[in-house]
Write a structure and sequence with these properties.
102 residues
């Protein structure tokens, strides 16, 4: 199915998915002006080929390893804060809550 979705996006430039309970999600390729894709941690979104395709086709794609935990309804503030934390903290040195606080 990932190949089918990739072909649809590449051919039309975008796809709109309606998924309960929220509104549609929109994915657009590099050639479009706006690029929006809000994945959650559902297996198809975190699958390595999906991640690879998104990394190659969305210039500002944030990979699953940097997604906030348990947050399917992200807003720009969530991403802004999480991205700032990821860029500021040396995650290789974090071994526990105590070392994270330090």
């Amino acid at each position: 199915t990932i190949k089918r979705w990739c072909q649809m996006i590449l051919q039309s430039g975008s796809i709109t998915l309606s998924s309960p309970p929220g509104g549609p999600r929109l994915a657009r390729t590099k050639g479009n002006i706006r690029k929006v894709f809000q994945p959650d941690d559902v297996k198809p979104h975190s699958y390595h080929l999906t991640q690879l395709w998104c990394r190659d086709n969305f210039p500002s794609f944030i990979g699953k390893d940097r997604w906030p935990p348990n947050s399917p309804d992200l807003n720009p503030l969530d991403y802004s804060i999480w991205d700032e934390l990821v860029n500021t903290i040396n995650w290789n040195k974090v071994q526990s809550k105590t070392t994270l606080i330090q």
